[in-house]
Design a protein that fits this description.
Blueprint lengths: L1 E6 L5 E6 L3 H18 L4 H17 L4 H18 L4 H7 L1 H18 L2
Antiparallel strand pairs: 1-2
Length: about 110
């Protein structure tokens, strides 16, 4: 189960829970990271979503060793991003890492495809 917490109108929390397969979670993580590179923009909430997604993947992962080592890097990136003074600078400074993570995600998705 993966949950998204969103502040709705009047700053009330709206919690959306959904069941995502590992493939769905990897696709969502890929899309979030890819959009950061493409648009050079992100919100603090998106960094929180990345963190939650990585935690979920790590908790249920049966993935290869290389990918397992990359997930903590993505997690740390999202923590640093939440506290960054400039989201654009944070993305730019991590562009090579993000590209590496995207390639790894694509590879693990191919390996785990049914």
């Amino acid at each position: 189960m993966y949950s998204i917490i969103h502040l709705g109108n009047n700053n009330r929390e709206v919690i959306i829970s959904m069941i995502l397969t590992m493939h769905n979670q990897l696709t969502l993580l890929h899309d979030l990271l890819d959009e950061q590179l493409l648009y050079k923009s992100v919100t603090e909430a998106e960094y929180k979503r990345i963190k939650a997604l990585v935690r979920s993947i790590m908790a249920h992962q049966h993935n290869g060793d290389h990918f397992s080592r990359l997930l903590p890097e993505v997690y740390y990136y999202s923590i640093k991003g939440e506290n960054a003074h400039s989201f654009i600078d944070h993305i730019t400074e991590n562009e090579a890492n993000i590209k590496k993570w995207l390639q790894a995600i694509n590879q693990i998705k191919k390996e785990t495809a049914i």
